[in-house]
Amino acid sequence: MIPAMTDLNAQIINEILHQARESFALAKHNYRIALTATSASILVSLIGIGVFASGRATQGAIATATGALPLIACAQYLKSAGDQLDAASKQLNETLDNLDA
């Protein structure tokens, strides 16, 4: 009966480790998406500022406004994704530490 329990424990540990790795991979993917979206939004804002500085106030104001609103949303998403990445990394490290113990 003890060997069967050892096999079951190994399967449980493998599943926990698999779930931790999947969580980490998903959090990393979300972080990359948020970083890309934030970068694109910053680029649009910079273009809007350039248009505004060139004297085309109406076009510049529109471009800046359309770049600023998504930037705020992307910054919040980026923070959330970063928090998820930190939590997943911590969970993965704890799982690996428990396996070593």
Can you tag this structure with a few keywords?
about 100 residues, mainly alpha, about 95% helix
Q: Outline of this structure?
A:
The protein is mainly α and 101 residues long. It is built from two helices and no strands.
Q: Can you describe what's shown?
A:
By secondary structure, the chain is an all-alpha fold. Helix content is 95%, strand content 0%. The protein contains 2 helices and no strands. Helix 1 packs antiparallel against helix 2. It is rod-shaped, with a radius of gyration of 23 Å. The chain starts with a helix and ends with a helix.
Which helices and strands, and how do they pair?
Elements: H1 2-53, H2 57-100
User: Largest sheet at a glance?
Assistant: none
Number of strands: 0
Number of domains: 1
Strand content: under 5%
How would you classify the helix and strand content by structural class? mainly alpha
Low-pLDDT stretches? none
Number of helices: 2
The end-to-end span amounts to 23 Å
Shape: rod-shaped
Q: Can you write the helix and strand succession as a string? A: HH
Helix content: over 70%
Average of pLDDT:
75
Radius of gyration: 23 Å
